[in-house]
Amino acid sequence: METFEKVKWMQLPRDVLIGHGVIEEISKVCKHLGVGKRALVVTGVHHTRKIAGEQVLELLSEAGYEVNLVEVRSISRESIEQVKDVSKRNKTKFMLGVGGGSIIDTTKIVSFELGIPFISVPTIASHDGIVSPRASLKDKDRGSPVSIHTHAPLAVVADTEIMSAAPYRFTVAGCGDIIANYSAVRDWQLAQKMRNAEFSDYAAALSKMTANMIMENAKEIKKKDEQSAWTVVKALVSSGVAISIAGSSTPASGSEHKFSHALDMVAEKPALHGEQCGVGTIMMTHLYGENWQRIREVLKEIGAPTTAKDLDIKDGYIIEALTSAHKINPDRYTILGDSGLTYEAAERLAVVTKVIE
Fold first, then answer.
1. Pairing of β 145-149 and β 134-138
2. Collapsing DSSP states into helix, strand and coil, what is residue 194?
3. How many Å separate Cα 51 from the centre of its chain?
4. At 11, which helix (H) or strand (E)?
5. What average pLDDT does this structure show over 17-39?
6. DSSP H or E stretch at residue 148
7. Sign, Cα dihedral of 59, 18, 247, 340
8. Contact residues for 286 (Cβ-Cβ < 8 A; gap 6+)
9. One-character DSSP codes across 279-303
10. How, if at all, do strands 38-43 and 66-71 pair?
């Protein structure tokens, strides 16, 4: 009999706190986790700092923590080194990423490289990075984004009061990022068949269930209230957990994400990542011969972009992104294959799905 030697290491948050006013519980969460007394709050400039960064700083200071704060404008190797330097100087024991995706990803990378825990405190519901053990950073040489392995946050504190007060566009982007799980899972299944890629039925099922949460609650989400933020944040958490279970971003990132990243590289002014992923999902679902019309209908219902015009992006950039998307993260096999779409096929796909006229 063969010896069974399979091993699976999953890293999940210990505490996830979602709801109205939960930012007030931040010191209790830190105490419960036993992370030490020296904290570094990583937050954005101006608005993000005022709506949440300074509040976290004050709450922890009042609870007896030694807290420092550093502002980050965008994610880059320079900003990562800046935060790392501040953390080392202050002998930080744990970090809190307070803000949107770039803030949380910066904190993830720094905390991982320094070997200290971090707590995710999102202020917008725009993508599943608030929970996942992956971060996105642009490759300096190629300009394309690279998915970096980090650790999952030790805890997530998602205040729906703060998140619902953010522009609704961010919540819509979060919906697009989650709906993208449909085509991502199909790509994953295809990669298993074509390349014998390691596949997790559990992670795939959770990923699809998460996308269903958005599809089934579209009418509630479009009300643009705190309940909307609650629904989307719960879905983002589930999607992030699916990534942790899989050990890669595969259950939530496929051909539609490649399209979005390619669009970031060619468009003069790209839209939000989740918005572009939603449009990409419409087209990739069509390539699989599945119900792309339903994806389009739900995105329209919640107020998400479904066309190049909605994205405020020229038609030509859509075609260019479709023909070059296969070059993004080439090790991840998707419906786009190794050679991608021809110009004619890309144009036909965008027209048939009504992404361009």
1. antiparallel
2. helix
3. 21
4. none
5. 97
6. strand 145-149
7. negative
8. 292, 349, 352, 353
9. HHHHHHHHHTTS-HHHHHHHHHHHT
10. parallel
Q: What are 153-164's pLDDT values in tens digits?
A: 999 999 999 999
Place of tokens 């939530």: 252
So what's the pLDDT on residue 142? 55
pLDDT-derived band at 178 (thresholds 50, 70, 90) equals: very high
Say how many CA atoms lie within 13 Å of 324 toward its Cβ: 15
Q: Distance between CA 101 and CA 126 in Å, rounded?
A: 7
Q: Strands 145-149, 118-122: parallel, antiparallel or unpaired by DSSP?
A: unpaired
CA 162, 122, 130, 302 torsion-angle sign:
positive
pLDDT digits (tens, 9 = 90+) for 217-256: 999 999 999 999 999 999 999 999 999 999 999 999 999 9
| Structure-token match 């725009």, residue found | 126
Give the other-Cβ count within 10 Å of 141's Cβ.
6
What's the rounded Cα separation, in Å, for the pair 192 and 202? 15
Amino acid at 214: I
Please report the sign of the dihedral spanned by the C-alpha atoms of residue 22, residue 33, residue 69, residue 126: negative
pLDDT recorded at residue 144: 64
**Span between the terminal Cα atoms of the chain, in Å:** 61
Q: In terms of DSSP H, where are the helices of the chain?
A: 26-33, 47-48, 54-62, 77-89, 101-114, 160-165, 168-179, 181-195, 201-216, 218-221, 226-246, 255-266, 273-287, 292-302, 308-311, 315-324, 343-352
pLDDT in tens, 98-139: 999 999 999 999 999 999 999 999 999 998 889 999 888 876
Look up tokens 């958005």; give the residue.
214
**Which domains does the chain possess?**
15-165 (3.40.50.1970), 175-352 (1.20.1090.10)
Cα separation, 133 vs 247, whole angstroms: 8
In contact, 100 and 122? CB cutoff 8 Å = yes
Residue with tokens 């479904």: 306
**Residues contacting residue 57 through CB under 8 Å, at least 6 positions apart:** 41, 67, 69
Residue for token pair 């269930």: 209
